[in-house]
Specification:
- Helix 2 packs across helix 3, helix 2 packs parallel to helix 4 and helix 4 runs parallel beside helix 5.
- The model has no long low-confidence stretch (mean pLDDT 92).
- The longest helix is centred in the middle third of the chain and has 18 residues.
- The chain is elongated and about 80 Å long.
- With 359 residues, the protein is an alpha+beta fold.
- It contains 8 helices and 20 strands.
- A 6-stranded mixed sheet has the order 6-7-8-3-9-10, sandwiched between helices. Strands 13-12-11-14-20 form a 5-stranded antiparallel sheet.
């Protein structure tokens, strides 16, 4: 297990195309760490710099206390699983997994033992003589994983490894990858654009956009306490309300939104950079499942509106509601009263403990 540290790392490609901008990250030993973001955000370039396939234009990369910034890939002790698997189609499963060991001139007896162990790890024992073109996509992905693990790397790098699989197989395989990482205790860095995937398997996540890191945190931290507008909208769904701080009373604040609507907020639930001062503009975020149907007689943080759309989802119903010139999305449990229909009046409650001041 190793700790990976990126210090002020940037990457500029020919023509002045800045892909990664001054990234500082520490990936802890034994951690499953995910680089998450949309296409073109710099996450794969960052992974390739850690692997040694690209060198930074500025900054340094350390494995523990060892500076590996300009070391070639074969001197870094990493195992890589690529998006397209990069398997040799003319070779058998055994030959593919053994390839890295043969390059390292490992004795044949050890190769047989280590390949057998790696295939058992990924639950492909008995398939050594199969050709790659005889395997399903999920089996090919596990061969690629076995090939990365068999060299016993200090660091496992995975670049969108599930993007070629169907939805059900993606879910099964991501669980398998996490199981293997926990069993081996290896430090792993995972790249994906899939928010659900990242939230399901990561210890911590770095959310990237435009070559920069917006936030690093555990899945609950990122979901419930987004650091920026981008994080709030990219991770799941959020209702974003722009407003102005009206009054402050201890840890309670009143924010005016949409002109004359007043929302009470808990000022402890805010980004530390938010200045809660009367007159300041702020951005409130509340997840759809954080909005409730108001009970008779409730007044605080209750907004009266009209149902604009209904999506029935079994356990939950998602309502799109118009409130003045706002449009809110509320995900309401099926147990909370009868189903509303389009154009019905509706009252929504925004509990202060479910509102977060993002900016």
């Amino acid at each position: 297990m190793i700790t990976v540290t990126l210090k002020n790392v940037s990457k500029v490609f020919p023509g002045g195309n800045v892909v990664v901008k001054d990234i500082n990250l520490t990936i802890r030993a034994g951690e499953f760490f995910t680089l998450l973001g949309p296409s073109g955000c710099g996450k794969t370039t960052t992974l390739r710099m850690i692997a040694g396939f690209n060198y930074p234009s500025a900054g340094s990369i350390f494995f523990d206390d060892r500076d590996v910034t300009h070391l070639p890939p074969n001197e870094r002790g990493t195992g890589m699983v690529f998006q397209n698997y990069a398997l040799f189609p003319h070779m058998t499963v055994f030959e593919n997994v053994a390839f890295g060991l043969r390059v390292r001139k490992v004795p044949q007896a050890q190769i047989r033992e280590r390949v057998a162990a790696a295939l058992a790890q990924v639950r492909l024992a008995g398939m050594e003589e199969r050709r790659i073109d005889q395997l399903s996509g999920g089996q090919q992905q596990r061969v690629a994983l076995a090939r990365a693990l068999v060299i016993q790397p200090n660091l496992l790098l995975l670049d969108e490894p599930l993007s070629n699989l169907d939805a059900k197989l993606r879910e099964e395989t991501r669980t398998e990858i996490r199981r293997l990482q926990l069993a081996s205790g290896i430090t792993a860095i995972y790249v994906t654009h899939d928010q659900a995937e990242a939230m399901a398997i990561s210890d911590r996540i770095a959310v990237m956009e435009g070559g920069r890191v917006h936030q690093v945190g555990t899945p609950p931290e990122i979901y419930h306490r987004p650091a920026t507008r981008f994080v709030a909208t990219f991770i799941g769904k959020s209702n974003l309300l722009e407003g102005v701080v009206d009054r402050i009373d201890g840890n309670r604040g009143l924010v005016k939104v949409a002109g004359n609507l007043v929302i009470g907020v808990d000022l402890e639930r805010r980004n530390p950079q938010v200045k809660a001062i009367p007159g300041n503009r702020v951005l409130l975020a509340v997840r759809p499942e954080g909005i409730q149907l108001a009970q008779p007689g409730e007044m605080d943080n209750v907004l009266a509106g009209t149902v604009l759309g209904v999506e029935f989802g079994g356990a939950y119903t998602e309502y799109t509601v118009g409130v003045n010139n706002l449009k809110l999305v509320a995900s309401v449990a099926a147990s909370e009263g009868e189903l509303r229909r389009k154009n019905d009046p509706i009252k929504l409650k925004l509990p202060p403990e479910r509102i977060y001041l993002v900016e």
